[in-house]
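note to self: dont lose this again. the chain is below, predicted strucutre after it. 926 aa total, dont forget to put it in the shared folder this time
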Amino acid sequence: MIWDRKAGRYTGTLSKITLLTLMSFSSAQALAEQTTSTAADAKPTSTDTLTVTGSEPAAPPPKTMLNAGASKKDLERRKASHLSDVVDQISGTSMNSLYARPDVSIGIQGVAGYGRVSQQLEGISQNFTAFTRDIGQTGSIYVEPQFLQSIDVTRGVNTSTGTLGSLGGSVNFRYLDIDDVLRPGKSLGGMVRGSTGFSQYANGQKPSGAAFLAGRDESWDVLLGVSRSKNDAYSVGSNFNQGEMLNGFHATNLQFYDDQNTYYNSAENCRYGGVTGVSGGFQDGLNNCMLTPQRLQWLKQAAKSGALKGTERTADSQMLRLRHYFNDEFNQRLDLFASASHSRFESDQKPQIKASNNGTDAEWFGSPWSVKNELDSRVISLKYQGEFSDLINPSIQIYHEQQRRKQGWLGIAGSYAYNQPLHYDVDNQSNGIKLANSSHFSLPVVGNWRLDAGAELRREKKTVDSLSEEDALQKQYAQWGLTYVVPEWDTDSRTITQSLALNLSTDDDGPLKISAGVGFQHVAMDVYSPRYLSGNIGKGGTIPGFQPLIDQYISAGESYADATEKALEELTAATDAVKIDPSNGNGYTRWVTDNQKHHYNLKSGNLAVQYTLPGTGLTPYASLGYGERAPTSGEMYISGAWMRQAFIANPDLKPEKNLSLQLGLNYHRPALFTESDDFSAGVGFYRNRIKDYIGYGPLWMSNDIIGENGGSAGQSVGSVNNLSAVIRQGFEFNLAYQQPLFYIRSNLTVPLRHDNKMCSANSPSGNYYTQSIADDGTTTITRGSGNGGQSCYSGWNWMETSQIEPIRGSLTAAITPYHGQLELGATLIYRGKQRAAYWYVKDAQPGSAAEENSQQSLPDHDGWITANLWPKTFKVDLFANYKVTDDLKLGVYLANLTNQMDGTTTSMGYNFYPGRTFTANLEYRF
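---
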């Protein structure tokens, strides 16, 4: 809601507001906001309106597509300390980060990672990237659950300055506002929120809470909030269907030891084992091994033995809203939003189980290998907006944001730096300005329309400090007095983004709503001081054989010594003639260390139409959108060894392109059975077709000589564009029924399987050479044509890129007696089998290992095989909330009632969800 100062004003004292303002500025950590309107709680189903979210100053224009997020009531009911608990219950969405991580990466309709989904805090985009083994976790945003008011999820391509540069879908996290804290009619007040686990099922949930102070007078609003949370390590669920776990759990990443520290090899019961990938590298092969009955029993015993170390987390956050009203006829105002957060946590856990030989139960084996993380996030924004006329309603916003991430781990066995401390720290900062204007006008015949125009200038700086496996090896060589040149794992970069968006939409309450938008974004990226290996051949040519040259000079009367010297000079000159850098003494390869520049022109557009059939409650809608995303500096220039996998740079990446289709039908019927009930339902079909999708695969370095066994990079992989389109498609269903005594709401996402393999050009740059050597030693170097053909495979991160999206759904039902003061209910949560498709390449198998180690039949030729990762899970949550007074609310939440073992498999570990957890919470306004 928007505070109407002309209709009636609160009579708070200026001295109180001044005091609160001074208190807010005394906080050292503050960040920023752009929009302050608080929407009423949305109905828990698909919406039947169309809106384009962006940085527009007034209410958003109409939009099309299914929009099912989490309202304030949803968040209050769940009181989640982890966003996974909320996001996993929104149709079409999934969490692509580990449960214990405070930063989140959201997937929408199968699209996730690296900024493919626009993630915003109060309308300010945050998609900072930092390399991890699991690509879906990149492109993260920090959100404090205790500050959350609502989560807005929009499907499909949506044209605005805030979503340009993404491929489809946006998530906007909104924090609490003044009216969420102040009691009605009051000018000064506050609110406290608290939660804790209790009883034997506290499961690591320590007392956590948030406190808010708010005040307002005729010209000022101010809100200050602080929070602190601590979660000890939690226990995972121990109940499961034994048959499904034996056949559907990917056990390859789970390690078992006995009390003599003898390691039990997991590759003994494999559906598919010993399958080699096309690069022959550590991670692009397939070993889909299952548990034996004995090891499944050990896993169950370990789950019961206590908390899984590495799942703990601490976090503290602060937020500030400061709003000034000019109190004039143009409704001018200034909005300052600030937020700052700090947290410590662990990720990428690789649990180990110790199984004793003396008959005692198995248990978790100490602290699992993990990546230690420390994360700081800050945002500050100042926004001006006014409403001068139908045509002139401008807004101006300036902002600064920062995400500083520190990651440390010990080198794994088999790497260059076993058991040595390594780190990868990334500091992302950006500054920007947004300009926007909304115009309302009327045209003959076609009626009322609205035109939204927005422009944005953003400067982002990325600074990297890393100690990689090869850096550790370089230090070892230095101790031996040897020089060893290593690549720079990731590079510093500066990016300037200029965006322009226009959107035209209907501006009335009629049954027909149309929205059309176009956008353009120019991305200029400077990459500083890279160090990566590249080819050193600049042109074709002929290099004579050394011995024929010597014979030629001897036949001309030269002595053998003189002939040898002159032959060497001629051979060197001929060799240098084909090189890009003759001074580089690295043979036919060279180290590139010059600053690099990249420019991308990205386009976006969408057309959406919906029509409400009069008197029926039916609203069909359709939306078609197109968006592009530029590659990041990390995707292009990461180079070196990581977790026993060698990577090479690929500066020739192309932008990704997505064509998004949304079709659906919504139905809304108030007073369906009684005067006071409400029914709504929706079904939607989505299809995302992504061209040039960026994944990992083998490639030839630019300007390299390619032989029978490939180029100089050997078994290295790098980021490559997929020549095959990646398809993500499926259906979403939403249903809700509500009346004064009870309500029911449900959602179901049913992806349609489409196996996505990687097919990439062998030479992304198109610059490669072949050589032929004659019997006399003469070498002829010839420039290759095209891109050197292509290879098809499943890449290094095949669990991510070839994931078979599981069916997801939830059903919540509750009774609400005593005029809604009491709420007693349950939530049923379902997730189908987790699987991944793997493209088996017959010619990549070096021998019979795959046939000998696979229980399932392998294809006779290249073809698909399916890896089982995790069986289906079904969980039950119970909750009770009681509104003691208008200002005091109490609640309890019992999550995972039946203590089901739940989680997801990552490339080298697991993301275990907590077992049965019992928490209590309160909220009090004063």
